[in-house]
């Protein structure tokens, strides 16, 4: 099981790969912890990482799954190193979603073509505890 601790809901491909979104009642708190209105200091970053870890602990089905749960993280780069450290220090694997940008052309009813970019889930970058 991979618990999604990002601001974006898991895609269908990610869900098929074992990603699970946090419970709806925790989504708002998750978003608050991942959003910064001002430049944070290191104490705030560590505090938010610890709070995100607590959300993970609440969501993990310890012992109910075949595999030990891990966390999918993503967001502000200045938070990710603290979040990684928090999880790795507790022997929890961290993954980052890896996607490819694909260009898709769609013909419209009037004959015009609209070109858009779609992000296609291709797997995970895995950071394991040492």
Detail the topology: elements first, then pairings.
Elements lengths: L1 E4 L6 H5 L2 E3 L2 H11 L7 H18 L10 E4 L3 H12 L5 E14 L5 E15 L3
Parallel strand pairs: 1-2, 1-3, 3-4
Antiparallel strand pairs: 4-5
Helix pairs in contact: 2-3, 3-4
Q: What features would you describe in this structure?
A:
The structure is a single chain. This protein is of the alpha/beta class and 130 residues long. The protein has one domain (2-127). The chain has a 5-stranded mixed β-sheet with strand order 2-1-3-4-5. It has helices spanning 12-16, 24-34, 42-59, 77-88, and strands at 2-5, 19-21, 70-73, 94-107, 113-127. A hairpin with a 5-residue loop joins strand 4 and strand 5. The relative contact order is 0.18. The protein is built from 4 helices and 5 strands, in the order βαβααβαββ. The longest helix has 18 residues, at 42-59. Helix 2 runs antiparallel to helix 3. The mean pLDDT is 92.
- How much helicity do the residues have? 25-40%
The radius of gyration is 17 Å
Intertermini distance: 20 Å
The tally of structural domains comes to 1
Shape: globular
Please summarize the sheet with the most strands. 5 strands, mixed
Mean pLDDT: 92
Strand content: 25-35%
Instruction: Tell me the series of helices and strands, N- to C-terminal.
Output: EHEHHEHEE
Order of the strands making up the biggest sheet: 2-1-3-4-5
SSE-based structural type: alpha/beta
Low-confidence stretches: none
How many runs of DSSP E, i.e. beta strands?
A: 5
By DSSP (H or I, 4+ residues per run), the number of helices equals 4
How is the quaternary structure best described? Answer: single chain
